Amino acid sequence: MERRVAAILCADAVGFSRLVSQEEEGALTRLGEQRRTIIDPLLATYRGRLFKTMGDGLLVEFLSAVDAVRFALSVQEQVAATEADGAPDQRMLWRMAIHLGDVVVDGSDLLGDGVNIASRLQALAPVGGVLVSRTMRDHLKGDVVLKPGGTHRLKNIPESVEVFEVIGSKGVVPVLASAQSTEQRRTARLIVASTGSVLILSVAAAFVWYWPEWGRKLPSAIPSVLVLPISTAQGEERGPLLADGLTDEVIGGLSRFSNMRVFGRNTSNSLSKASSDPRELREKHGVSYIVRGAMHDATERLRLNVELIDAQTGTTRWANRYDDDISKTFQTVDEVVRSVVSNVAVRMSRAELDRARQKPPADLGAYQLTLRGRQLWRQPNREALLEARSLFLRAAEADPTYAPPLVYAAFTHLTAFNNTWSDEFAKPTALERILELSLKALDLDPSYAAAYAAQAIAYTYQGRHEQADAAAEQALRANPNDPDVLGRIGQVQSFSGRHEQALVTLKRAIDLDPYGPAQWFNFLSRAYFFLGDDNAAISAARTCLERSKIQPCQETLAAALALSGHHDEAATIWKEISAGRASAAPERRVSRLRPAFRNQADLNRLVDGLSRAAQADP
Q1: What percent of the chain has pLDDT over 70?
Q2: Could you tell me the CATH number of the domain that includes residue 86?
């Protein structure tokens, strides 16, 4: 059986069956004309081999990934030009997808996953556009501009596939002639977290104060963000395409956060021409914050300056300069987008919290009540926790359509479950309440990543690890740039025994928000501890306790100190955390965690360390 690696292109004529039902002879003639005048000549130009036709579908083999992309873009460009004068519902346009993979040769036919994946991806491609898989992206050089399209599960394909939309290539830029413009499709990207699919919806250019996904009005106090089109120097060939893609990705990334409104791309283009004065944009258009970027020399390196401007004061809240090599891979571009999105979200949240602190409680709306509650929730004592929960429930009552306060109320029950000073310590009802509140939040916003993260943690503590893994995956699909979500998912990964993966996730959360919650360092400390790296665990635990006196972090520190021979300090910490507690015995103290550990050897190591700390004589 002969095998080889090939770039497989799958193309489908959109709406062909409908056109045939309306006028069979005319539709078949038009399809044949496109084949004869556009597709077949371009196959010869780019050395493609048509190995299967399926009525209105084509499968083509290319030995070069670049040739496959250039063929697809050229076809789409020429088809769009020939169909541009027709009525939108009468145009014969194509969806195309390309995957590079292993195929099995069967005479003149090709079989195997390489063909199957390309066929499945074709259904995800935009009308008039081209979609490629991650393996294709890894083999494309810098002359192809790509836009990330998320990770998808495909029917009968065991592994998820990451996809990218082709924006353009040197000398070939696709012209999309569908009823929807490129910008209209980009403006309303809907993340369906239950399946991980990305749907492109057409929306009006006018901006309204509603989530495009669900049509629910948001609390009026939520800040609005205007991402201005990233500017480029005149005369750059590649820069405008890349800047256009970066702008779209930043808008799409910020749109996943529930604590902000994000102007769509059409509005962004219009307002960028209307005024450059932040205060005028605020007064006339309700803009709270502005993201502004300028890019220089995008040939070999990505040189990008970005700043976040407070429209109320005109001051810069955050600024950064990126200077990275993009000559060989677009992974750097993805990393820049993630950094920009996360930094903007974190700095905005802090600025809004500063404003909420200055208002009397009676004047606070649902959004500001949630901010106040978050501030209290991170204080490690019973009174602050109960007050935070009260504020979250007030926020939910003030606006029953607003999901975040329900999730943060759920997190208060998680904090209570983990701390002995709480009436809910180790009580299963606390976990049930987390699931109840997070489910209510998802009913309001099915794409809310933090709600899936809350579910993942509750399932973990209940020992329902497969459900926890599924919820964690949905959280990361819904928003891979939220450091709060990353911190929680790192905790879930560590409990499941994937400590190296947890370290990567947690370090990314800390890198995106260095001043985030102390508990991230607790999770980091435990991941190191279960890997047997006691010194790193001690260092992370000390950082945690410098920020906040969290009991689980004291436990990790005591255990790591005891196992590394620092018995006196371990005993001192143990006496402090066990003083006056009936459940002070190490096994009893951590018994609530036993179902959470997929690998019981990890828990046994923690019990062993705490037992040595308890037996030591300071």
Answers
A1: 83
A2: 3.30.70.1230
